[in-house]
Design a protein that fits this description.
single chain; 194 residues; alpha+beta; 3-stranded antiparallel β-sheet; 10 helices; 42% helix; elongated
């Protein structure tokens, strides 16, 4: 039996490949048996002794490794909206296989063609907890493109708040809008709001 064991990692979720560098499979299984770790899937374990601040976004990396936080969840993260989504908006490539994930936190998958999915992705590391999220300009472009399903008022709020940011990059925003094929709609919104 292992007593008073503390993981070197302060992350809430730990990749198996990181554990296997330091510990044998037998020892990892012992950690699971003793309740220090919970096996999530073949790639990730949850650190049951994690004492840091928790975020639902940390679950995304473990349960949807190729998923990227997007749409309204990303807008809230960047302070572009006060709207609180009932679930985490996670974007994956179209035709991707996603293994089953838990009922909590609720995750809403959005399948996107590779040409729209595969750019403007950034990694955020919060005290060893890493998740992928789209850049603010990509988030705004996605919301404008899918404004009918997201909501016109939410779209207006996100774009208005983006335009108020001191670090806004209109050139990058228009470049991403062009790539997302919503440049005309973006220009219309910009003309009304500016």
């Amino acid at each position: 039996m292992i007593k008073d064991y503390t993981f070197d990692s302060c992350a809430q979720f730990i990749q198996r490949k990181e554990l296997i560098k330091k510990y044998s499979s037998y020892l990892i299984n012992t950690f699971v048996t003793n309740g220090y770790l919970t096996k999530i899937n073949n790639r990730y374990y949850q650190n049951n002794r994690y004492e840091g601040e928790e975020s639902d976004f940390y679950y995304v990396a473990a349960y949807v490794p190729n998923g990227v936080i997007g749409f309204m969840s990303a807008a809230v993260y960047y302070g572009l909206s006060n709207y609180r989504p009932a679930s985490i908006d996670v974007v994956v490539k179209a035709n991707s296989y996603v293994s089953p994930f838990p009922n909590w936190p609720p995750i809403d998958l959005h399948y996107m063609e590779e040409k729209y999915y595969d750019f403007a992705i950034t990694s955020v590391n919060e005290n060893g907890n890493v998740f992928k999220i789209y850049e603010p300009e990509k988030v705004v472009s996605d919301i404008v493109k899918y404004r009918e399903s997201i909501g016109i008022e939410e779209t207006k709020e996100v774009l208005t708040n983006y335009l108020k940011r001191p670090d806004r990059d209109i050139g990058k925003l228009m470049k991403y809008a062009k790539r997302m094929r919503c440049e005309k709609q973006m220009k219309t919104y910009m003309e009304v709001l500016v």
